[in-house]
Known about the structure:
A: mainly alpha; 76% helix; B: 544 residues; alpha+beta; 7-stranded mixed sheet; 19% strand; globular
Amino acid sequence: MKFLGAGLILVRALVVLFLVTFMITVLVRLLPGDPVDTLMPFATDEGREQLRSELGLNINIVQYYFRWLGDFVRGDFGQWYASTGDGGGVPIGQMLGVALPRSLFLMFYTMVFSLALALPIGIFLGYRADTRIDRTISNAMFALSSIPSFALGLSLVYILGLRLDLLPVLGYVPFTESPGEHFKSMVLPVLSLSVGLIAGFSRLLRVDTIATLREDFVTMASSKGLSNGWILWRHVLRPSSATLMTSAALQMGGLIGGAVVIEIIFALNGFGMLLNTAIVTRQYLAIQSLVALIAVAFIFFNLVVNVLYAVVDPRVRSARG
Amino acid sequence: MRVIRGSWHKKVALAAAVTMVTSLGQIAPTNAASKANNLVIAISEFDSGWCLQDSPGGEQILAKNQVTETLMTTNDKGKTVPYLAKSVENSADFKTWKLTLREGIMFHDGEELTAATVAANAAGNLGLNPVIPAALPAIAWQDALGGVTSLAQFAAKVQPLSKYVIQFNLPAPRPLFSELWAGGRASLWSSKTLQNKQCGQTVGAGTGPFKIQSKGVDKAKTVLEANTSYWRKGADGKSLPKAKTLTFLTIVDGSQRRNALLKGQADMATFGSTGGLVLNEMKKDKGITLFEGPRDTTWSFHLNSAAAPFNSKNARLAFSFGLDREALAKVVAKGNAEPGYCFGATYHPYNLSNGGKKKCAPSDLAKAKQYVAAYQTETGKQLAIVLPTTESQESIKLNQAVCNMMIKAGATCTLMPPVTATAYILRGFALQQQVSNFNVVFGYSSSFADLFSRKTNLELSGFRFTNPGLAACFQTAVETNSKAKYQECVGVLHGDAYWVPAWTEATFIASGKNVVFSDGLLPSGGKRREIDAKFDFATITVSG
């Protein structure tokens, strides 16, 4: 039964992936302008026709989609087109090898840092709901979440980077090169992205915590004489985490390709920047492969969250059988 | 069970904390760039192709020109002089050009520079190399050599006479032919490079002071390493280059390029006049030295005279007089550019300012209003201007300012939806825009501007259709290189407002405190020609 359920989830994910990637193919085709004009604006008619063939613009979209899908599942994401045409560009897989780790580290540190702060704050605010301290902290969180990440980033650069001279103002250092420099290079971008997330996550957790605290099992635990801390962390946090986990999963997918502004400000040049450059320079194959990878990330994180629902909340586990 | 899990969590948390603290403790300073002799240069442009058929922007040409070199170059006085070539001779009618090469110049892949290499590069420039498709630069070369579409035609016009001598036979007089070999885009690659589809993408062997170490995979970082067998020596007789590596780091945001200099994360950085606010901040920064090149690049509006409304001279003159150039220079560059009343600097052939005394295209709101009214009388319609923009903030800001000026003059004005810079150029060439904003007049030479004023397929403003006599005028000017003829043609360009100059700007390079200049390359506050795409990093070092 369990295997059947897991199989169904997997099939559903594959169907979503198929639909999403096909839609991307259609949308990329619908982008205004002829990609050949952009990639090889001064080519001869012969050269243009050759590029048209290489880009699959002379075959129908379904044929083209399956040709691309075949390459994609084999890990061939295509080439970053150069003016020398097929064989002259850089494989997108190689470029991802540079850009993706940066975005994954950025996403990982941001989520870890945000959740590490949001969990205690959210639980605490739920526990002290409608008190003065709840209102004060909630309002402060609300104010913080309204600061755009780029404005916060530039302010942090000025204060922590230039005035206090504590951190580098931009750039990325691979972990393997120097772990210390690596962490330092990530502090400002992570802080810039985290503040809004901490505010959002803690508010979500606060609301769910308030609801959970009204459940009978909490009264039961309290009547057994368990400490408030124990009840909150052991019995309230897990059933209150469903909304938070869903939100976190969506944010994780979004952070991979969506932190473009922060990547620009801090010259991180990760996945988001690569996608942005691909769009600006009309690298059609790259756009298609990169957006498909984001879709894969979204689906993956949602699958993980589906599994985690059952781990953290016994009621979900028992309902699924 | 509970106790064990608690302990496990604590151990992991403790280990992570210890790792973090110890690794953070390893770092003393945060200025990553300050490693002796490893120069980090911050630019705003992402990596692009460097090969003959590519059209990289100014900052990418700057990086490319550390790897490749040209046969000719422009000296401090604006004269085209031999560089990789030893000498240049031309016939009295300027149709035959003979270039003799320096001997013993080696490419990074071991090939020697010979007449055959120059011929291979010329073929590539003309679009005759099947590995490298024809592109923008081919237009200039085809124009000079009078249309070369086959190898047989090529052999008749480009003739290696010996190992180190090559002759070009041109169909028409071309007094400025040698300038084609001096431009930043005309640098030479080895023959082997020109047969590689990755030419200029990830690989490429030139003769320059630096070799490509890594390029193309990380679009924001290009690393070059010293060419230890470089041919040129420093003024002290010692080998060049002085730096071990050059790293070109893309930092799009201008204020972050400045911050990188202040922190020592970059040693040098490039800026344009449009980064006016940041430039003004840097003038006050201690530890940053800002070098400004000559203000000789004019951005001008090219009005499409092949279609309404600018097929009307009244509309064109309304635009030209309505342009408040003082305000524009402030909006665009915050005082770091000159109002562009004339084209280029006083030494450019297109400049009619008579040593700076005359305003070739004056701003005059009252006259602009008169011409707007005259347009309405002529056509029965209100002058309706639609300005195209690129996606950059600078372009949108500029065009909003221009629109406000046109509205003040009595016209209506709207902005087109922004497009990429490439799409903007392509639409401009195809005359699908009323107006295009370009910088075709710069430096000492008229070569580039001449491409747009005569018979190539770079239409730009369409005046060749409405005024073929003017195109013929420029053709004669090019063939005779006569200053008087240029003055006559440019007079019509201004008088009929086909090209409307807007502002004239410079390029800036800023350096941090650890940079050491030698050979007197950059005297403090000096305005030298080197502050452009041919800036020479070979003589620069950085202290640790």
